[in-house]
Design a protein that fits this description.
The protein has about 35 residues and is mainly α. Helix content is about 70%, strand content about 0%.
């Protein structure tokens, strides 16, 4: 998750709520890919 933290460095300015949204979407994508 270290690489992701670098990407989230910018969105941090938008607020933590946005990061929560992204993590939720990413987790959904991962679960879909996992089957």
């Amino acid at each position: 998750m270290k690489t992701n933290d670098k990407y989230l460095g910018g969105p941090l300015l938008l607020g933590r709520s946005k990061i929560q949204e992204w993590r939720y979407l990413v987790n959904r994508l991962k679960s879909k890919l996992a089957g």
